[in-house]
Amino acid sequence: MRALARPATGRPRGDPILFTNDLFVLALAMAAHLAFVILLLLTRREPRKDHSLAIAAFLGIVLATALADMTDVMYAIGVWTLPGPNHLVAVMTPLLLLEGPALYFYARALASKEPLRLGRGDLLHLAPYALLQAVTLLLYGLALPGQSGDPALQDFGATLVTQGSLPAERLLTLLAYLPVMTAYVVLAIRELSRHERQKLDYFSNLEGSSLRWLHWNIPLMGLSWGVNLVLLADDLLFDALHPSPLVSLLIFAAWVYPLSFMALWQQPIYVPTRRSPALEAAIATETPVLPAVLAVAAPAGGGAEPRYQRSALDGERMKRIAAKIERTMAQDRLYRNHALNLRNLSDHLKVSENYLSQVLNDYIGSNFYEYVNRWRIREACELLSRTSARIIDIGEDVGFNSRSTFNAAFRKETGQTPSDYRAAVARGDDGAPAPVLDPAIPPAIPFPDRPVPL
Predict the structure, then answer these.
(1) Which residues contact 425 (CB under 8 A, 6 or more apart)?
(2) Which positions ≥6 away from 427 have C-beta within 8 Å?
């Protein structure tokens, strides 16, 4: 983006430090890194590819515009001489307006339970780029030598794309880029925030489901763009800083390298699984037909939009599904599977995920994550009371992945650590606080020794 401030011909304003051979090699190394990351993203095997394709598209746009900037620098300092304006920039610079949509689709793909499939409506995201590209090509078309038409019009077009501290097509790109990128950053953050809420309704263990790294990387990208804007404003108005091209390279590297490495590390969060036709038919049988008109109750607290507006579940059906959930947890101990998620429970009970989520949230009063962990803590309390097994082994047996997660969940539900609870039980301390378990869980359901049928 720094290159937007450079004129398309002649030397940059003032007398800034120009690209040296070493800096040019460094820039090429960064471009090679991006190309290699894109290749890995496109070729690696994954259960779903939509998020990798989206971030590969984003990095590809970054690479294309960076290469255009590099050729523009060579053109500006006389290393690369061509008649007329730098036509590569005419094609590449408007691609900046596709960075926002690509980033948004990446966040959307990571937050979607099903693989992302773009529809006709998504083509609207290309509209800002298409409009700017058409205007840019029109300006450059006017500036091409040897074109038939009014010579005065050709001279005017050449002036627009070659003269001034910020040629017209660069100014258009800059003015369009700021609001477009801001809008898509907001949309991306909204998708990530939705995922933070949604994951509690789907997973019983949250390890590997966090996207906080992307939450942090997006502001880092915004900061780097902000610094570039400061440099651009100085180049246009004051010409006082004269920053080295190394500054631009370091700013570029500050967000590109973390993003590219984390994109390679990031695996799909929601892994699609295929259901057999028989299972699909069984779930469909359990799912009532949605009436044409539904009366939707107002949400508690008022004002907010109801969460399950189009649900056909009535109170009696909710009660029956809740009983099935409680019975299967008590008898089959599904919670012992540390990878248990809402899809697994849906397949086991032959009830749709939406209905299970609604029953858990509206009837039982817990999201899936809290509900399953309460069952885990309940059995952990029994094992801590009547066995001498190690705490870490008990945590793993009841479905926790790590001792830290077990301790945090246990303290949240009981107000004590597992070791404190065991010590209180061993002392027979009548004053020791008892485990605080959700009243929706029946207190007297036995734990038979049966395998977990998953």
Answers:
(1) 384, 385, 432
(2) none
Q: Which residue shows structure tokens 């926002």?
A: 100
Q: Which domains does the chain have, with CATH numbers?
A: 2-265 (1.20.1070), 277-288+311-427 (1.10.10.60)
Q: Residue 341 forms beta bridges with which residues? A: 203
Give every CB contact of residue 317 below 8 A, 6+ residues apart in sequence. Answer: 288
Report the half-sphere exposure of 30 (CA within 13 A, side-chain side): 25
**Rounded-to-integer distance, Cα 31 and Cα 37, Å:** 10
* Two structure tokens written together for 400: 């926790």
Note whether 63 and 34 are within 8 A (CB): yes
In 322-408 the beta strands, taken as DSSP E runs, fall at none
What span, in angstroms and rounded, lies between the C-alpha atoms of 169 and 176? 11
Q: pTM for the complete prediction?
A: 0.78
Using the predicted structure, report yes or no on whether residue 157 has a pLDDT greater than 50: no
More confident residue, 221 or 61: 61
Tokens of 96: 């900046």
DSSP string, 186-232: HHHHHHHHHHHHHGGGTBS--TT---HHHHHHHHHHHHHHHHHHHHH
Q: What is the mean pLDDT of residues 190-198?
A: 93
